[in-house]
Amino acid sequence: MTTEQAPSAQRSVPDRGRVFVSPVGSRRVEVTLAVAMSVFGVLFSFQSVPALVGQWSYTGTPLGVTVLLLVFGSITVAGLAAVLRQWTRPIFLTAAVAYLLALALWPSVVPPHDGLVHGETPWIVQVATVPAGFVVVARRRWGVPALYALLVAVSIGVLRSSPAGGDVDALRATLDAVYAFALDIVLLVLTVAVRLAAASVDQAQNNALQRYAAAQTDLAMESERVATDALVHDSVLTTFLSAAAATTPDATALAATMARKAMGNLTRATVAAGTGPRVPLSGLLARIRDEAAVVADRFTFASDDTAGVELPTEVADALAAAAAQAMMNSVKHAGGEDLSRSVVVRGLGDGALRVEVADTGRGFDPAAIGSQRLGVRVSIVERARHAGAEVEIDTAPGAGTRVVLSWPAAARAVVERAEQTAAAR
Known about the structure:
This protein is an alpha+beta fold and about 425 residues long. The protein is built from 15 helices and nine strands. Strand 6 and strand 7 form a beta hairpin.
């Protein structure tokens, strides 16, 4: 990533108003799986409460309380992480490791001669599916969850055959282990199926994005061809025909005037086409800076993954003008000069891109913008949409403002997936 000035860290403000909702895809599915597994973990853990209460008389020791906190504390923290969408995967894996540690400590919790009644099931065994489910969600490949499920099942089988686990016979211990392993595998299979479906949706969105980008390219090339044909017909051919038919001094003078005009038109067309009908993404940042030269010194500028990405000239002009308007609005409405303001241009792959203009100012309520206010509705939103782009405005009173221009419009899905790591971890 190339940066001309290190931008200040923007504030992370929850509950911002969002104009658009991200499409269904892998990111949304991962968030849903994490929340669903947390809810399942809490509800599934309730079944162990009667056994926990009944066994408290001899497990309520300091070590027993430690095991209790390891199991239920980690389940609670994992649930909060899923709901808040913060560090979900590492916390889920930590909860799974904490459960294995609790299983290892359990034989030391139960008194050797005054503990569980023969055949009684320890409460810690009844919640074995919950940490296994956490591993299923945290690890996208099936190998680690399957290995964890097998390890837990073997541990339960060994524990159940010992005095600390109810001292059951080998058949009963094996059946309990198989039951725990089967539940974990069912969770794994269901999760893998959901993820495969989400991957199919992502692939369909990528294919649609590529087709849309190709269509935009064809449209831009066709527009350029029509403009070139019109220029050649209206200027060059007409001049040649007039010069060929000139038989008088006045006709010759007129042909010479037409020739000078045609040469001027060709020169202007050549200059305008200096970068061709398409503009490299690396030059879009410069266009934005030039478009908003009056306020450019109040922003930091950065670009990322711009190599090999190009866009039609008219799209570059529209995005630069829309971004410049967002910058003007920030300087005019966001607050003083001590705010953090930034402009970032990023390539998303497959010819897609996004432009982000952000500040940490006072923000606003998008629903409160009147129809007479044209700065956002016309100069940003409509201008970008006419060029085949989409606009997302992320803001709230007191929470700063982030304007994201995505091109093509279908690239909004790519923008959401590009942020999935931070949201799911």
